Amino acid sequence: MLVKVFRKVYWHTPLFLILIGVLLWLKAFLDPASAIAEIDNVNAPLFKLVQAMACNYPLIALLVSFVLLMVQVFFINHIASARNLTDRYSALTGLLYLLLMSSTSAMITMHPVLFSNMFLLLVLNKILQVHGKQEFMPEIFNSGLMVAIAGLFYLPALVFFIFLIFAQIIYYLVSFRSVLASLLGLATPFFFLGLYYFMRDLFFERLGAFSITIQPWLVFGQTPDASEKIFIVVLAIFSLIAFARLRLVYYQDNPIRIRKRIQVLFLLFLISIVSYLSAVNYIHLHHAILAIPLSVGLAIFFFDLKKKWLSEIIFLILLLAVLGSRFSIL
Q1: pLDDT tens per residue, range 10-29
Q2: Contact criterion met (CB below 8 Å) for 206 and 197
């Protein structure tokens, strides 16, 4: 029933999405002080500025986080529909993103990945637009710039510079000029940040903070509760099925333009998984990165299923897993 409701956008659909978001965040709104948790060892300068507000004004911080999340919900829905990955008048991608971004209590707060995702969505939107363009250098430069800003909120997001380079290869756009444009875009925010630190005699002191530690064994050192384990297993199974079907069935029946975008989505999915190696102490929040490709991939999967009753059953199982993880039912 829910897949059918959000398959098409009506005048009340945005209100439904906001209402679902409020219900998922309601417990945090009732007790904002306990919902805002201070995140230790943050080496991202832009999030440090935001975090100061979160500690002093928890309710305002929570409201800002919720508004930012809802902006991303509508934006990712626009990306998927405008780039012809899903139906033009669907809200399913946004709904899935909202559920995945609210699937654990750790995500119901102001955290660095939430801010980083906004800029990664801008990168995805830019990259999906370059196919067939004669002049694409501005998009490439801006994408590098957005990756850098995402990294200033959440340092492991800098891994997605690899996504930017390989996306150019998919579109047959890679060249010395395009790689240089990407690097210049990536370097620009860090140049001004370094200049600011230099003028305040903090350059060498802060330079050591900008490092990405690779500790893959920490991924297996997590201790989620039973509800979260069930959610992770359910999501992993459905995601693998969705992306396998996307490659074997959906990919074959579309024009080259859409095939290229599907390849970019696959690339984003793979880089999101690889980026867990750099998450270190933020693995419980890093799941939010994976929400971007998964929400689009699962939305395509639900749309492409011929048996609508099957899509409703799968979505219901996923929804129950999300709610169980969010409210720690087990």
Answers
A1: 778 889 999 999 999 998 88
A2: yes
The type of residue at 224 is P
Q: How far is the C-alpha of 162 from the C-alpha of 81, rounded, in Å?
A: 25
Burial class (CB in 10 A: 0-12, 13-18, 19+), 135: exposed
> Do the beta carbons of residue 92 and residue 13 sit within 8 Å?
no
Please tell me the distance from the alpha carbon of residue 276 to that of residue 231, in angstroms, as a whole number.
18
Largest distance between two CA atoms of the chain: 64
Could you give the CA distance from residue 93 to residue 266 in angstroms, rounded to a whole number? 16
Q: Measuring CA to CA, how many Å separate 224 from each of 104, 203, 221, 232, 278?
A: 10, 39, 10, 9, 19
Poorest-confidence range of 56-60, 108-112, 223-227, 286-290?
223-227
- DSSP calls for 263-280: HHHHHHHHHHHHGGGGTG
Interval 174-192: pLDDT, tens:
889 999 999 999 999 989 8
Q: Which residues contact 26 (CB under 8 A, 6 or more apart)?
A: none
Helix (H), strand (E) counts: the chain? 15, 0
Dist. CA 33–CA 58, nearest whole Å: 6
> What's phi and psi for 228, nearest 5 deg?
-70, -35
pTM attached to this predicted model: 0.92
> What are the backbone dihedrals phi and psi of residue 212, each rounded to the nearest 5 degrees, phi first?
-105, 120
- Reading the block at residue 277, the tokens are 């190696």
Alpha-carbon gap, residue 303 to 300, rounded angstroms: 5
Q: How many residues does this entry show for the chain?
A: 330
Domain ranges of the chain: 2-326
Q: Angle, to 10 degrees, between the axis of helix 45-56 and the axis of helix 112-129?
A: 130
Chain mean position to CA 287: 8
298 and 198 Cβ atoms separated by less than 8 Å: no
Closest CA to 295 of 72, 147, 92: 92
Closest by alpha carbon to 157, among 130, 122, 181? Answer: 122
